[in-house]
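for the writeup, i need someone to sanity check this before i put it in the appendix. the sequnce is what the collaborator sent (i think, or maybe the updated version? ugh). structure was predicted straight from it, no edits. if anything looks off just tell me and ill rerun, i have time this weekend
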Amino acid sequence: MKRQRRIHKPATPQSESIPDLLVLPIEDCLDLHTFRPAEIGELIPEYLELCQQHGLLEVKIIHGKGTGALKAGVRAILKRHPLVADFIDAEQRSGGWGATLVYLSSESKT
């Protein structure tokens, strides 16, 4: 079952007066291929909090293989986030080192 939440997307310079709204499903997998590295600092913490609120305690974040810069950014956020109990590379069949499995605490630590 997909759960949805509206997330405010900052307006682009061409449309300063009309903000764009994205409807993102709250699922156990977040694919970052369409996001810029500058956007993950707010996106990942909000995603993790929503997952925990919806009872999703094991999630996968797909960051891709590339140069490893996005993976490093994701893992830096995960290391600091109070809801993250642990994280590991995904199994090869689930993305290998292009994805990270995240285990969330069932209790809020914020």
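The chain has a mean pLDDT of 85. Residues 3-10+19-104 form a domain with the Ribosomal Protein S8; Chain: A, domain 1 fold (CATH 3.30.1370.110).
thx in advance!!
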